[in-house]
Design brief:
Elements: H1 2-5, H2 7-13, H3 20-25, H4 39-66, H5 72-94, H6 96-101, H7 108-121, H8 125-147
């Protein structure tokens, strides 16, 4: 997820962490990710990275649900960065061209909401599935809209 989110900052430092094969599949070279003339292709590369991260996030969700409910500290330790990354992925997918122009971050109020809701619900797999599901659905919606 950080590779996708940090593409603009990496461009300033002239560093590239995006795999070359993902760029090649979209018809550009990694060094062209920051060029205005390749914004459409770079946006597709970013969306490919978001899709890849989404698969990993879903595996992490299952891992967290497999943790015993009474290991709430461990669950929270895993939940907070996972949900923050999911919210960031949704922002990236919502407007990939804008994400390529500047660094995307969730708001402090989103962070506080994540901490508060997970502290209250980390005991319940049903409640966590609801939180995961709403985020998964939002990301899929943004990805569908990006294709259209």
């Amino acid at each position: 997820m950080n590779i996708a989110r940090d593409i603009p900052a990496d461009g300033v430092r002239n560093t590239i962490f995006v795999p070359e094969d993902i760029c090649q599949a979209r018809g550009i070279l990694p060094r062209q990710l920051w060029e205005e003339g390749h914004r459409a292709e770079a946006s597709q590369v970013l969306l490919d990275l978001v899709r890849l991260a989404d698969r990993e996030v879903r595996a992490a969700q299952e891992y967290i649900l497999d943790l015993p409910w009474y290991k709430f500290r461990l669950r929270l330790f895993c939940l907070w960065p996972l949900l923050m990354s999911q919210d960031t992925l949704a922002l990236l997918a919502k407007d990939p061209a804008a994400a390529l122009a500047g660094r995307v971050k969730i708001t402090r109020s989103q962070v506080r909401r994540i901490v508060w809701t997970t502290t209250a619900t980390c005991w319940s797999n049903l409640a966590l599935r609801f939180q995961f599901g709403s985020r998964n659905n939002l990301l899929q919606k943004h990805l569908r809209e990006a294709i259209a």
